[in-house]
Fold these 3 entries.
Entry 1:
Amino acid sequence: MSDRRRLIVVANRAPSSYALEDGRRVARRGAGGLVTSLGPLVSRHDVTWIASAISAEDRAVAAEGAVDETARDGSRYRLHLIAHPPETYDLYYNVIANPVLWFVQHGLWDRKHVPAGDLTRAWQEGYVPVNEAFAAAVVEELEREPAAVFFHDYHLYLAPALVRSRRPEAPLAHFTHIPWVEPDRWSVLPEPFVRSIHEGLLANDVTGFHTERWRAAFLASARSLGLEPDEERVTAHPISIDPDEFAEIARSEDVCERERELEARRPERLILRVDRTDPSKNVPRGLEAFRLLLERRPDLRGKVGMLALLDPSRQSIPEYVEERRRIEAAAAELEAGFPGALMLQIADDFPASVAAYKQFDVLLVNAVMDGLNLVAKEASVVNEREGLVVLSVNAGAYEELRDWVVPVEPLDVEATVDALEAALALGKEERRERQEAIREHVRAHDLKRWIAAQLADLDRASSIRRP
């Protein structure tokens, strides 16, 4: 018996983005880890994907109505793009979703940074109407044919309650892919905003997070507002990867070519970081820690190098532009003191990242806070050098991988130096055992299992008749 079902996936980004080349419309793979993570939904179920039109050609497609599209594996899905007014989308994405919600939920925002008047306008004229547009698109699809609805991430906190008010029978789930913070962290925002965020999420049959830590923080923040969440409907399942698919990518010619280039110039021992140029990723402190390690350990100079592969992130937002400036300044200081010790690339180059995954001796993930961090899983699955992971205790993946990584407090640069030094000193057999343990864990807790858990939770919760 087939277990295929009809699903409506709702996310800001789509699996495909459109452009014109030589006057012809072409579809390109959409950007972002969430798009990659949800790929198996498209291949195993009958999916309608609702997303924002980002490019000019996306907007042209949106004007034509929903279209049938093909995923990378040949699976068909229905794509429903929404063309928001440009100013509305700018307020929604570049003022509220990023950086405000992202910064608050990564513990990076405080009261002195919040411009109350501008924030209220951006909320009322940006975040609210975009969520209303998403809710209207969901209702339109539900009227076409019943389906389970799967909302994703911090862009769409209000939409579930709007759909629930119009289609009370619809099975609704929302998964938040970034951290959730304790009640006091939310106090930097106006209380009506915070309340509507929590009420929006609690309108779902299931509200999901990566870890028990984020789940507990959500329950605490909801209760601080006088809300009464049903704990059984608030779940925690850490997302994962498809190990077989990732191994296939690692064997591809594009990746192998990049690997040969890296092998030709790599030092004896390689410390790797693969990140976005995002303030939450804490790249400048990682670069500083490596510089201090070389100062502390002259015997490592010329033998240990760092490769930093950084994807330029959200460069239309001032805070992200400033973070890139800080990264480049830290890199320049490192290079001035230790010429040739750092290989820095700021570009979107996925094959180079996977090639580096295969070659690292130490992987540094020192994020200030991360919902999960798939890099720690991806890299460990394909690494060929008994690579060891130095992992922030504030990364969601730490909850799963803590027994096999070297932990680090991300804001403590000296502690990061100590962690790098300890990772480099660990014996080969211990490194191999830790890496294999991570691989076995990821294979047992893969992406298919995560998706199955989401759908099982939704089936259980939505089967309970609402009062």
Entry 2:
Amino acid sequence: MELCDRPALGLNSLLKKGEITFFDITESILKRIESVEQKTNAYITLLEEKIFKKAEELDKKVNRKTEFPVLTGIPIAVKDNICTKGIRTTCASKALKDFILPYDATVIKYLKATGAVITGKTNMDEFAMGSSNENSYYGPVLNPWNSEYVPGGSVRQPASFCGVVGLKPTYGRVSRYGLVAFASSLDQIGILTEDTKDAALLLNIIGRHDRFDSTSVEMDTIDYISELNGDIRGINLGVPEEYFKSGIDTEVETRVRAAIEKFENLGAKIVEVNLPHTEYGVAIYQLISASEASSNLARYDGVRYGGRVGDYENLSDMYRYTRSDGFGMEVKRRIMFGTYALSRGYYDEYYLRAQKVRNLIKRDFDEVFKSVSAVVTPTSPVLPFKLGEKIEDPLSMYLADIYTVSVNLAGIPAISIPCGFSSNAQHPITGLSYDPYGRSADNLPVGLQIIGKPFDEFTVLRVAYAYESNTEWHTKRPQETVQ
């Protein structure tokens, strides 16, 4: 196994034993990036020279016979909507293509304090608006398992589509200070890792109170790794019937059902539960997020933030031309939708009513958690879809988020972990791999979502680790990265 394929805790162990150097880790990471970047377009900004220099400094400075922070020398990529001092933060938008900040987001401060090395800023949907990672000024990101497919947007969906672990903490657990705003009541900083223990490790570091964020909750510090022992005997796990109705891909349902059976074999009790307002989740999420985006993106006016067009006659034209030139189509669509929903005469009918339904979605989860410790569902109802397949049909694309957005609306924690791959079944006539929707179903990842009570990330991680410890899906790698 290459060093770049090892989890952070594993690398830390090898460093302490003196079996590898900080330079070895950096070299392995950058070789992998060089070999796959043309096929994935994952980075907007890569800090190759800086991280090599940092590795050399650490090899000279750190005495590995003594204790040092666990993330020392560990490379971490940062999504390009998180502020980084001296490194451009573009949000994958033309409007911010040269934007360099004088400060770090709180999570970046926490990571740097533990010795982590920032490799660069990664590509994304512009201002995080999208479900596929196709809406970037710097071009679409491609799925590492098959470059004809999308990798997904946000945290849990790309974890599902790319076969890795993605953790969304409770709203208020991780500071949002320095996260460029999209929809303030929904925005959160999440974690993508090789395995569940690394997700727990990072949450230990960034899941702390921050006085610079008014939504940050002050709670006791928790060691999420300490009791991840794989034992879930006697725990009640809820399975909502609404998540297995029409619209779910057969491949997805088969693998998630098998994962639920595995939990039962490990001693968990499976309980059927109901989340009756799930069907409204996508509509409510899109309405609220677009409304808040409309307000938040008003600051990009060519005066306070972002670039400015040069040819205009008055202030109104400067605003209009600057925004038209700086924003992509998906951002414009959501701003228009949100502005309409907040406009006079429609606020009560749309935005206010959406907030009321949001409360009903949260109540559904509150009721379910009276009888179960966690809820187990698919992460996405579909397999990764082809690049461009849904770009002209945004509603169809938004529906791919139906199992994740309700969790965001409720503000509760959830994790996506790998639970299998689509089959290599062949069509009896053509001999080609296929799935029920006519796409190639050859070796595409499937994600399992585990949802927890507010601020109970420990149970979410505990259940995820139990499954992970008894399966090997998280160890699989795309063929292109292991050749």
Entry 3:
Amino acid sequence: MNKEQIKSLQNRIGVDPDGVWGPKSTKAAEDHLRDLMPKNNPWPKSDQASLREFYGRPGDETNLVGLPVPDGVIVKYEGKQVATIRCHRKVADSLARVLVEVSKVKPGILLEYAGCYNNRSVRGGSTPSLHAYGAAIDFDPDSNGNHTHWPTGATMPIEVMECFAKEGWKCAGAAWQRDAMHFEGTRP
């Protein structure tokens, strides 16, 4: 993001817009998204014990459903339209609502879908990824990679993060200041 885009983002999250992203802006972004979340967040904590208790065993495909992409919403993977998204049954309804809301505010992001269920470990580690539970989804990885700082490098719009936050999802870009493509059904 350039200085003017950062000022606009700072203004949206309630920080004096100076165009410089630092600790105050980072905290304000986290607080802004947390304030949008439901009071009784439906998702588990992100430790493996809580995840297994809530979602079951990672890689257990019996917990997955084929979520039909909602009517009027266009999602594409590598340029091809997607009809269903394979996800955990416990996130399906929430994810459908998020897709509808994202399609209203930033539909172009949905054309850069990069996956949901993937039975794998976290990058560079041995613990199961939230993707192994079918409880995480990625969008626009080319502009929002794992090691690209958000928002000074990564371009994930705050409006997309707001759609996920309203459903209680953790937005990695704001929570970790990197991996802005990643959204997961866990508490921040």
